[in-house]
Amino acid sequence: MRTNHQTSVQRWLQQHCESSGQVAGGLVVVAGSGSAPAHNVAEWPAGGDMTPPLAAAAQAAVDRSRAVLVAPTVAWPASKHNRVISLPLRVGDRTLGAVALAVQADDGPAVDALFKDLELASANVGQTLDAPAADAGSGDAAQVLRLQDLLLHHERLADGALALLTELAPLLRCERVSLGVAEADDVALVAVSNSAEFKGEQDLLRLLAAAMQEAMDQGAPVRFPAAPTSPACIVLAHAELHARSGLATASVPLVHAGRAVGALLAEWRATAPPHDTSLALLGSVAGMLGPLVALSQRAERTWPARSADLLRAARARMTRRHDPLPKLLALALTAAVLVAGWWPVSWHVGAPARIEGAVQRVVAAPMDGYLQRSLVRPGDTVHAGDVLVELADQDLRLEQRRWEGALAQHENGFAAALARADRAQFVITQGKAGEARAQLDLVRQQLARTKLLAPIDGVVIRGDLGQSLGAPVQRGDVLLTLAPAERFRLIVDVDERDIASIHAGQSGELALASLPVDTLGFVVERVTPVATVRDGRNTFAVEARLTHAAPLLRPGLEGVAKIAAGERSAAWIWGHRALDWLRLALWSWSP
């Protein structure tokens, strides 16, 4: 039956091998007692043909207690590796076993990089293989799983890390536990145990980040004050932190895919230094946190950062030796872009457009007065002669009766002078009667004009007088605007940068906001040579005639028009605006 520590080692080996495309298989062995050979505790893939050479390399690493590199002279059954590297697993000055990997490496730098990745990843495996700690392995595993659940229970890394560190500090019997993650060339502090807000002590935060960076740079755990059996390492930042806080410190890098992604730092009081079991638990938690922190960072990264990662990965793939497929794909893509860029395609000038009536007639106030009644509203269809608006006529009717009375009086005087043969009075009364008759005719005409009639058949497109009844109007005020119901013209507001490509006779298509699915054809009839400013742009009005009209067309509808302006290359269509701007800018800047 497989023990708990064997299961943990098997899980670590499988994860490390699957995370690298250069590793084809791996084996972990435990040193035998005395002269007994080492025995296998983890293998990936299980039962493969690579086991004998891997076991031989691992045994050599155990016997020599140093790294071993094997480069066979004949090909092994596996086709994806050409070397075997092996590294001893130590705890203090004891060699407990070794790990061997079948790798694909073409030169010395590649081998060195694989050794470095393996050294970082296996930093805590020796603790797992340590026999005295095997009995406590199940308890540590349960604690690690519980801490992992605390981290994954929260959506944000900072919240999960705070809960995990707050729970971890009592287990380690320490004063404070801090977690930092790698960001560019620096370390960012993510969480500190029992501290929801830790931004106040900037000097302490700087020292914590420097100590974590020191452990990450060396790729190994750092302890200060160091134990007598601890390997030699640089502890300058840890010593400075110890001098500042007076606490013993231990830092463990978080490793994922052979790369340090962060660090875990614990601090103890000088009167209660860390125990070996606490350091082992700290190493186990660090081994668990590495992949989870890397995944959380990747999930929380912004899209520009993810795009940069993709570009870096693509660049690394492009520069990889003995891998021609990415280069061929990039070459084919470049050729396709060049061909598509210079291939001639139809170029259409797009611009906002609006429907107007072919002609427009206004209904204006014929005289000063007051609005009495409005019979139509915008959108109503009217016929020639229909009454549209009525003005107040009370004053005019009074004026009419006054002149009717004056006319009757003058006609009576005219008759009396005629009967008396009074020629002088006859002429005077005849003149006054003519004046009264003329004034009466004027008043009658004004009364007739109080009812404003539709001059044409059409649609009311402007003038809502329903809210202005009783308001005064002056002679000449525009009250309503009418347009023919079946005759339209199209006005396209073309930007001044594209007007040079537009001329009469060109065809195009119109898509209205009210009819986005159906497009209407049109023909350009006239380019207005006067520019106007619309929506902050200098535009020219291009008049066009619709080749066919839809039944729901109304004056005032707006949409987008596309005018066919010939054929151009796709590269010119995409870049001519920027090129024209650059030319104008260079010309304006030139002396």
Write the layout of secondary structure elements.
Layout (H helix, E strand, L loop, with lengths): L3 H15 L4 E8 L8 E6 L6 H14 L3 E3 L12 E9 L2 E10 L4 H14 L3 H5 L7 H16 L4 H16 L3 E8 L2 E7 L9 H17 L3 E3 L11 H10 L1 E10 L2 E11 L6 H25 L2 H16 L5 H19 L1 E14 L3 E4 L4 E6 L6 E2 L4 E5 L2 H27 L2 H26 L2 E3 L4 E5 L9 E2 L4 E6 L4 E8 L11 E6 L6 E16 L2 E10 L11 E12 H20 L2
Antiparallel strand pairs: 1-2, 1-5, 3-4, 4-5, 6-7, 6-10, 8-9, 9-10, 11-20, 11-24, 12-19, 13-15, 13-18, 14-17, 15-16, 17-19, 20-23, 21-22, 21-24, 22-23
Helix pairs in contact: 5-6, 5-9, 7-8, 12-13
In short:
With 591 residues, this protein is an alpha+beta fold. 41% of the residues lie in helices and 29% in strands.
Question: Which tags fit this structure?
Answer:
591 residues; alpha+beta; Beta-Lactamase; OB fold (Dihydrolipoamide Acetyltransferase, E2P); 5 domains; six-stranded antiparallel beta barrel; five-stranded antiparallel sheet; 14 helices; 29% strand
Structure, explained:
The structure is a single chain. With 591 residues, the protein is an alpha+beta fold. The chain has five domains: 4-133, Beta-Lactamase (2-Layer Sandwich), CATH 3.30.450; 137-300, GAF domain (Beta-Lactamase), CATH 3.30.450; 360-392 and 450-482, Beta Barrel (OB fold (Dihydrolipoamide Acetyltransferase, E2P)), CATH 2.40.50.100; 395-445; 487-589, Efflux pump adaptor protein, beta barrel domain (Elongation Factor Tu (Ef-tu), domain 3), CATH 2.40.30. Helix content is 41%, strand content 29%. It is built from 14 helices and 24 strands. The protein has helices spanning 4-18, 51-64, 108-121, 125-129, 137-152, 157-172, 202-218, 236-245, 276-300, 303-318, 324-342, 394-420, 423-448, 570-589; strands at 23-30, 39-44, 68-70, 83-91, 94-103, 176-183, 186-192, 222-224, 247-256, 259-269, 344-357, 361-364, 369-374, 381-382, 387-391, 451-453, 458-462, 472-473, 478-483, 488-495, 507-512, 519-534, 537-546, 558-569. The protein has a six-stranded antiparallel β-barrel with strand order 11-20-23-22-21-24. Residues 131-137 have low confidence and may be disordered.
